[in-house]
Write a sequence for this structure.
């Protein structure tokens, strides 16, 4: 009975990863892309692309990434803010897929859209990728525009010039005294 159980498990695993209708999205992470602090990481410098994922039928969907780089996937509910990478975060994955790529399995509904953020395990990594979504219906994958994470520094310099005018008035008083002396008499 052991071999039959293993066969069923292997068969189920294969069906779960290739089940249903496929949708795909191809892209590339470049140095021109925005970067953020990836969840579970304490540093910035992870390039990313955000993809909006919408379905016409609720069910279990599998999101698989194919790439020559070590990808990392983050799934968000409804929105994604690079300045707040843990807000609305549902799931992350690093290497559940093949060749150091992510694979996420999620129960998606028609009433909510999800945001898939494709990034990398190591900071400043670039390269092409393809996300394939398997599920009961075709998924609609479109670019998700995020608010760029920028820091603006404003510096104001105020210069004040003070000119002091000093007026000095000098008053000199001269007193003249005339003294007459006589020597020896009048």
């Amino acid at each position: 009975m052991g071999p039959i159980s293993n066969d069923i498990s292997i068969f189920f695993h294969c069906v779960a990863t290739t089940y249903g209708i496929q949708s795909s999205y191809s892209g590339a992470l470049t140095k021109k892309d925005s970067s953020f602090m990836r969840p579970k990481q304490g540093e910035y410098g992870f390039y990313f692309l955000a993809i909006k994922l919408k379905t016409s039928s609720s069910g279990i969907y599998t999101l698989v990434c194919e790439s020559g780089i070590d990808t990392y996937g983050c799934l968000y509910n409804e929105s994604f803010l690079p300045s707040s990478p843990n807000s609305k975060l549902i799931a992350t994955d690093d290497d559940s897929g093949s060749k150091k790529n992510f694979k996420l399995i999620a129960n998606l509904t028609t009433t909510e859209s999800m945001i898939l953020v494709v990034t990398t395990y190591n900071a400043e990594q670039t390269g092409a990728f393809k996300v394939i979504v398997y599920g009961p219906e075709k998924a609609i994958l479109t670019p998700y525009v995020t608010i760029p994470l920028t820091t603006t520094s404003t510096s104001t310099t105020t210069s004040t010039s003070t000119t002091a005018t000093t007026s000095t008035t000098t008053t000199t008083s001269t007193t003249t005294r005339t003294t007459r002396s006589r020597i020896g008499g009048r």
Observations:
- The radius of gyration is 38 Å.
- Confidence is low (pLDDT under 50) at residues 1-17, 150-183.
